[in-house]
Amino acid sequence: MAEAHSPRPHGAAETKSALSEKAQAFQSLAKEAFSEFSPEVGASLDLVQVTVAPDKLVPLCRKAKEDPRLDFKLILLLTAVDYKDRFQIVYHLQSLSHEWTLVVKTDLPYDNPRVPSVSSVWRGADWYEREMHELFGIVFEGHPNLVPLLLWEGFEGYPGRKSYPFYDYQEW
Known about the structure:
Blueprint lengths: L20 H13 L6 E5 L2 E5 L5 H10 L7 E9 L3 E10 L4 E10 L4 E3 L8 H12 L2 E3 L31
Parallel strand pairs: 2-5, 6-7
Antiparallel strand pairs: 1-2, 3-4, 4-5
């Protein structure tokens, strides 16, 4: 008789679903502070996550940085996820003064992935956006210098996409 599929590997520790008091307080503040942007606010493993429409991304990020209750002065990372039918851009922001990390997400259509650049909010986003443009073909509108960063001039395709034909690679 086949075993039923377990949602977690046998013997793996169960993850607590409850947030710490600090994360709960920050989640409440995030809901209130970002309410004008109509975000989805959630949390996972004590990380507060905000999902927002692409056209509201830059104003939300600017508020996250400039509102003293939030004070997200540092962008830790910026990446793209290829879900085959859409891209999701994920920003990890850090407030050193409050010791909070905020995850901001926005979804883009797969056939025309365009999103406003946040490099005017955090200069550190510059190279992240160039890398994602090069590897995934995502256009960061308003970016001051969206030129190749890693791949040689004339490289064809977007190797970060799941559809990229890696099967053509042969070992020698």
